[in-house]
TrEMBL record:
Coiled coil: none annotated. Keywords: DNA-binding, Transcription, Transcription regulation. The keyword DNA-binding applies. This is TetR/AcrR family transcriptional regulator. It comes from Gordonia phosphorivorans. The lineage of its organism: Bacteria, Bacillati, Actinomycetota, Actinomycetes, Mycobacteriales.
Length: 193
């Protein structure tokens, strides 16, 4: 019996993770068994075990895959954007767009499952760090007034977490994409000269 070519195996692995991410985003993952995931992805349970040793590890790996995919989409969205204010706005809007397919069930499951929540929190910290770097650049270029960029980034991180936990939706009625647009508008208007 021959083994599949590495390129095919890599492509198939990506397809499975893409399918799993799409499934989890639309329906959540806590209620799904490995048998159900395999059936929905039209693969065997043993194929899933080639991706991870348990459902928990599979969910964690799928969450990492989701954020890698989101980072790539955000990078494409950001290409060609000039000016710090526009970069911050574009960046936060791109985050909102990347998270738009995430159902309430997915976000609730993510919040309840510590390994997946940790991945989300790590990505939130990285996003806040990028915003801080953009603010620092805007202050250095004279586009923004002299603000404490670390505080502004902390504010962004707190709001990203509140958006993820659906607290912003509950208190304001804004969907996630609209909340990210509002955050960008308020942040950039507040620090502009």
């Amino acid at each position: 019996m021959s083994t599949p070519a590495p390129e095919f195996a890599t492509r198939r692995r990506e397809e499975l993770f893409d399918g799993m991410v799409d499934l989890f985003l639309s329906e959540g993952f806590a209620h799904l068994t490995l048998d159900e995931i395999a059936a929905r992805l039209r693969c065997s349970k043993s194929t899933l075990y080639t991706l991870a040793d348990s459902k928990e590890q599979l969910v964690r790996s799928a969450t990492i895959h989701f954020f890698r995919r989101a980072v790539a989409e955000i990078a494409v969205h950001m290409s060609g954007v000039h000016g710090t204010r526009e970069q911050i706005t574009s960046f936060l809007e791109a985050i909102g767009t990347a998270l738009t397919p995430a159902s309430d069930q997915f976000m609730a499951d993510l919040d309840a499952f510590a390994p997946a929540r940790e991945i989300y929190e790590q990505n939130t910290r990285m996003a806040a760090d990028q915003v801080r770097e953009m603010i620092d650049a805007g202050v250095a270029d004279g586009e923004f007034r002299g603000v404490n960029a670390a505080f502004a980034a902390d504010l962004v991180a707190a709001m990203l977490n509140r958006i993820q936990q659906r607290a912003v939706r509950a208190s304001t009625g804004l969907d996630d994409a609209s909340a990210y647009r509002e955050l960008a508008a308020i942040l950039t208007a507040g620090i502009s000269k």
